[in-house]
Amino acid sequence: MNLTTLLLLALISPLLAQTVKDREGSIRSDREKMTTQDRWIYNDTDKAFATAKTSGKPVLAILRCVPCLGGSGLDSSLNDDPALAPLLDQFVALRLINVNSLDLSRFQFDYDLSLSALILNADGTTYGRFGSWHHQKNPEDKSTDGLRASLEASLAIHKNYPANKATLGPKQPLRLPYKTPLEIPHIANNPQDFAPDLDWQGKLVQSCVHCHQIGDGLKAAYHDEEQPIPLLLSHPTPSPATIGFDLSHNHRATITSVQPGSLAAKAGLQARDEILTVNGTPVISPADLSWALHSLHHTTLELSLNRSGTKIGITLKLPEDWRLETDISLRVGTWPMRAWIGGGMKLRDLTDQERRDKNLSNNQLALLAEHVGQYGNHAAAQRKGFKKGDILIRIENLETRLTESKLFALLLQSHPKPTSLKATILRNGKELPLTFPIQ
């Protein structure tokens, strides 16, 4: 699947991230606004890092997909909230609105967010990451409390740098085979012929490489070679919910709830605990914790916590397959994989009540086809006879309860080559045999 198809999906599917009506107008307006003020350096990383070197300030890099509504409320606060200004003045503020020539050896983050932030030293060392799924799903939320806490925590790291540099190792970018997005095959070979800079004199919107296309292209490079896609790419930056707890979006890293019976609960984590470090590395935000999970190379988490003013330590032992619990259902980057696994269906695990209503066990596979694609590779399931409303209850030897995310994790690993699997569905209360496509 090339990027033209992916862009088409982004336009036709109401389930993907929504954008403003005048996409080009929003980009041009943003450039006019940002290049006529003194705080933000616009799309110029070299200037930002040179300024940081001479000023002694850290770089605050905001990566923003301007036409996307996700994060737009927070974005307006960045530009217009006078109360935030004194804090921003302690940084070299860099605004990046496209990633065509982004240095991937320096800038790695959650590519499915339309507003992300990285805080870095002038020498390129990453202090931390910020990116809010709460603001992504609630564009009208302008709250900056979580961002403020993250920026203040990063300033504390900066104050102690470079004495604390060794503790920051796990925050640094991972090794990638490409220097910039334009080297990724699915971007490099795209008919649009992306250039390092945006086409301000021509097709502006079409000339922009979107953040999510980096993740899409990294996965596609494995898929095209018929190799298993690493979970690190298919299920990236896991949320804390993967291991059983949630963090507040209004604080640096404060636990709001712990799932009963989860790994976190068994380890002794409690609501209102504030996470200070993970395996000795300081945490400045929920996104920072997600990166710690994303880049984890073993199965032990040593957490340092502030519990009611007392510093305590807790160890979480993770099972080998803990990444399989990562929920990727709301990610834009999941849509290409829905073509590869299942031929264009969006599947949802039935709730316990829905299962009771249909006389289905709580332990069996029961995935409802909420959407069946109609175009290109996303119409493969339709061509095999699947319909919206079908309930998938068996795929070969898979019969136990799975989420769509976990199903994808298993099948992307076990079936990297195109094939067809025997499947059974429920339609109008009757079992029917169908062929489940893997492309």
- Give the termini distance in whole angstroms: 10 Å
Q: What is the averaged pLDDT score?
A: 94
Q: What's the CATH architecture of the largest domain?
A: 3-Layer(aba) Sandwich
Number of domains: 2
The order of strands across the largest sheet is 1-3-2-4-5
Q: Under CATH, the topology of the largest domain is which?
A: Glutaredoxin
> What can be said about the biggest beta sheet?
5 strands, mixed
Q: What is the overall silhouette?
A: globular
CATH superfamily caption of the largest domain: Glutaredoxin
Radius of gyration: 22 Å
* Low-pLDDT regions: 1-16
**Can you tell me the CATH class of the largest domain?**
Alpha Beta
Q: If helices are DSSP runs of H or I spanning 4 or more residues, what is the number of helices?
A: 16
* Class inferred from helices and paired strands: alpha+beta
Structure commentary:
This protein has 439 residues and is α+β, with helices and mostly antiparallel strands. 30% of the residues lie in helices and 20% in strands. The chain folds into 2 domains: 303 residues, Glutaredoxin (3-Layer(aba) Sandwich), CATH 3.40.30; 98 residues, Pdz3 Domain. The termini are close together. Strands 1-3-2-4-5 form a 5-stranded mixed sheet, sandwiched between helices. The longest helix is centred in the middle third of the chain and has 15 residues. The protein has 16 helices and 16 strands. The radius of gyration is 22 Å and the shape is globular. The N terminus is likely disordered.
